[in-house]
Specification:
This protein has about 260 residues and is of the alpha/beta class. The protein contains nine helices and eight strands.
Length: about 260
């Protein structure tokens, strides 16, 4: 069984036909999902989704503030996050992190770091793993983790750094998210990573509905299967082994706290 460790099930166009999307994913062997929040509007939808009795053991959620959406923070937002984490003992903290591709200057980088580290502190308080967004900011992300003494691990989503950087994340208790970047035939670096990293350190993800493999069509959690098949081919093993190990890795992060 496959685990899509990074998707946004509450975002359009997935949310309005979710039962169908999940059924299609299951047909491809994808039975577990970790759906991450982008902003506060997401929190209620995700909480309601995970509370459905049918989704107690297949949909996991992460609550937090994505670095793209922190320009105008709602009032008392960190107190609210503190409260929702208290009320949702199963939730991870995410999608949080740094995106220096989207930070025009040092002031916005500092703002991102402040929001990221405040959320890492909350994750620590509640003993939760984190779901990390990191674009062109690997060194700064790792520095934030060390500064906050964050030891609860989690997932680094859509990892595109070097093997050496991956090992630094792994040392801090993180699993490396390998996903839709692999569906692009030109991604040599991610292919190298997918063939060299120990399988025990990898998890699979799509980022659906984002990062679509074909333009103008939304990404779909069912593509986790294709990602498993590509990794299997790169490593000369069968996709079922990739599925089994990566799902076990993902569940170990979610249940280990
Ligand atoms: Zn995402």
């Amino acid at each position: 069984m496959l685990f899509d460790t990074h998707c946004h099930l509450t975002h359009p166009p997935l949310f309005h036909r979710l039962p169908e999307i999940l059924a299609e994913a299951r047909t491809c062997g994808v039975s577990y999902f970790l759906s991450a929040a982008a902003d506060t509007d997401d929190w209620e939808n995700l909480i309601a989704l995970a509370a459905q009795p049918t989704h107690q053991n297949d949909i996991y959620i992460a609550l937090g503030l994505h670095p793209w959406f922190i320009d105008r923070l709602p009032e008392n937002v960190f107190n609210r996050l503190d409260q929702v984490l208290q009320q949702q003992p199963q939730a991870l903290v995410g999608e949080i992190g740094l995106d220096f591709h989207r930070a025009a200057d040092e002031i916005s980088q500092r703002q991102q770091q402040f929001v990221f580290e405040t959320q890492l502190d909350l994750a620590k308080t509640h003993r939760r793993a984190a779901v990390i967004h990191n674009v062109k900011s690997g060194v700064a992300c790792l520095a934030s983790l060390r500064r906050t003494n964050f030891t609860f691990g989690g997932f680094v989503h859509a990892f595109s750094g070097s093997t050496e950087e991956a090992h630094q994340w792994i040392k801090l208790g993180f699993k490396i998210g390998i996903g839709s970047l692999l569906l692009n035939p030109n991604t040599k670096k991610v292919k190298q990573l997918a063939s060299r990293l120990p399988l025990d350190d990898m998890v699979l993800e799509t980022d659906a509905p984002y990062m679509p493999p074909t333009p103008h069509a939304p990404n779909h959690p069912k593509n986790t299967r294709q990602i498993a098949e590509i990794i299997a081919e790169l490593r000369g093993i069968d996709w079922q082994t990739v599925a089994e190990v990566s799902t076990r890795n993902a569940l170990s992060v979610i249940t280990n706290r």
